[in-house]
Design brief:
The two termini are 36 Å apart. With 266 residues, the protein is an alpha+beta fold. The chain is globular. Helix content is 54%, strand content 12%. The protein folds into two domains: 152 residues, Beta Polymerase, domain 2 (2-Layer Sandwich); 99 residues, no CATH class.
């Protein structure tokens, strides 16, 4: 069983509270709010493999010195011990909604090497004052925050974030879904659970966590897929090993969902 915010151990909460205070020190009076989404907000957080998903909102665009200070902060915090994925938006991004959504700054472990190089060589390719960065994933992150997110400090979610059109949310999750179709053998646990939750959303418009989608799949997908889905869930909340899966069962699951999703999209 994974954790949510209410049930997670105190060391996880302390990590996030300290992370929040570090961000506030950098953005200072520009701070609007700090919001959790993803598995820690919805349940299913596994300290061994889950990211901590965060949105931070500011009043106005940050200056480049603040972005560089945040890069130092994120590099020193993320993966010690929990990986962080965070996007920083300002109110202008949210008041005049567009998809893909603009953002001020983003960090995940994917960006670690680029930011380390940038700070080491004092360059400005990635960390700059350009306000034209966009991310298709933000439509999904904001929708999840509106439905299931947690405000740890700042203005209420209902006052900060817009209602994302369903077409934009669907566009956002379909992009990730297509990547999962290609990568299910490389990352069977994440990709399988994500395929199931996209299918569930398109079928019934339920916004779910990965573990909720897995449990739904156990009772709603064909019995022939049951053992595969059960192993996926057990791996997700346990050791997250991949040697339990063979290619045939993953392709069978992928093709079953792909066929039904295609019908729903048509």
């Amino acid at each position: 069983m994974g954790y949510d915010w209410k049930t997670c151990p105190s060391d996880i909460k302390n990590f996030i509270y300290n992370f929040k205070e570090g961000i506030k020190e950098v953005v200072n009076d520009n701070f609007v709010g700090f919001y959790l989404h993803g598995s820690l907000a919805m349940g299913g957080f596994n300290p061994k493999c889950s990211d901590i998903d965060v949105l931070v909102v500011t009043n106005k665009q940050m200056i480049v010195e603040q972005k560089r200070n945040l890069a130092y902060l994120f590099l020193n915090y993320s993966n010690f011990p929990y990986p962080v994925e965070i996007s920083i938006l300002n109110k202008e991004h949210l008041m005049d909604w567009q998809h893909p959504c603009l953002y001020d700054f983003h960090y995940s472990e994917f960006w670690r090497k680029q930011y380390e190089d940038e700070l080491m060589h004092n360059t400005y390719k990635y960390i700059n004052e350009d306000n034209c960065n966009t991310d298709t994933d933000l439509a999904a992150h904001i929708t999840i925050t509106k439905h299931r997110g947690i405000c740890l400090e700042g203005d209420p979610i209902s006052e900060v974030f817009p209602v994302v059109p369903k077409t934009d949310y669907r566009s956002s999750i379909i992009g990730d879904y297509r990547e999962c179709l290609k990568n299910i053998e490389k990352d069977p646990i994440y990709c399988s659970l994500n395929l199931i939750r996209v299918y569930w959303y398109l079928k019934e418009e339920v916004i779910s966590s990965k573990i909720e989608a897995g449990n739904w799949g156990l009772t709603n997908l064909p019995k022939e897929l049951g053992s595969t889905v059960r192993k996926i869930i057990e791996s997700y909340v346990g050791e997250n090993t991949t040697d339990l899966f063979n290619k045939e069962e993953l392709i069978f699951l992928r093709n079953y969902i792909s066929d039904r999703v295609q019908e729903l999209l048509n």
